[in-house]
Amino acid sequence: MIRMEREVEEEFRPAMLARLQGKIGEFDAQQKGMAPRCPTCKRAMRARGRLPAPSLLVRFGRLLLVSTVYRCKPCKQQIRPLWQRLGVEAGQVSGSLARLVALLGVVVPYELGAKLSWRCFGIEVSPMAVWRAVQRLGDACAAYTEQQAKFFGDARQGPATEGAGSARRR
């Protein structure tokens, strides 16, 4: 059964990758004609054209994105709004794949996690990619925990559940 599941997954992986590419293209087309503002000087940035970027590793394989690059001439800053809206970085692992790889990296050594990602998900990643995914997940967890501690440690935040419950009982 495992072999058949893997065969079906490998058969449909190119179609899923193509569909993801199409959905990203549709998403990018919705934002056409909106020049972003420079994060530094707040001026409108000018398009430099659509340029290929390093590939992005997703659950279905390598995704090649061609995105519009904008540049602020005075500040010399360059941005790719599509990459920002998708929340990804060029040459990195996508969010959903990173979560899966990070889970492997948390329970086994990074080298073994890389081998298991091939066996479990059919995606070849390096031990360094597993390490990066674990570090990012750890950073995100630490930031979330710190935000929660700040919120609940704030004296202005009253015990909302107790106050609401006692008001109903009266």
Strand count: 5
SS-derived structural category: alpha+beta
Helix content: 55-70%
**SSE pattern, N- to C-terminal:** HEEEEEHHHHH
Low-confidence stretches: none
> Major sheet: order of its strands?
1-4-5
Integer tally of domains: 2
Specify Rg, calculated over alpha carbons.
22 Å
* Approximate strand percentage: 5-15%
Q: What's the total helix number?
A: 6
The biggest sheet amounts to:
3 strands, antiparallel
Overview of the molecule:
The protein has six helices and five strands; from the N terminus they run H-E-E-E-E-E-H-H-H-H-H. The protein is globular, with a radius of gyration of 22 Å. A hairpin with a 4-residue loop joins strand 4 and strand 5. Helices cover 57% and strands 14% of the residues. A three-stranded antiparallel β-sheet has the order 1-4-5. A two-stranded antiparallel sheet has the order 2-3. It starts with a helix and ends with a helix. It is an alpha+beta fold and 170 residues long. It folds into two domains: 1-29 and 36-92, no CATH class; 93-154, no CATH class. Helix 3 packs across helix 4, helix 3 (95-107) crosses helix 5 and helix 4 crosses helix 5 (127-153).
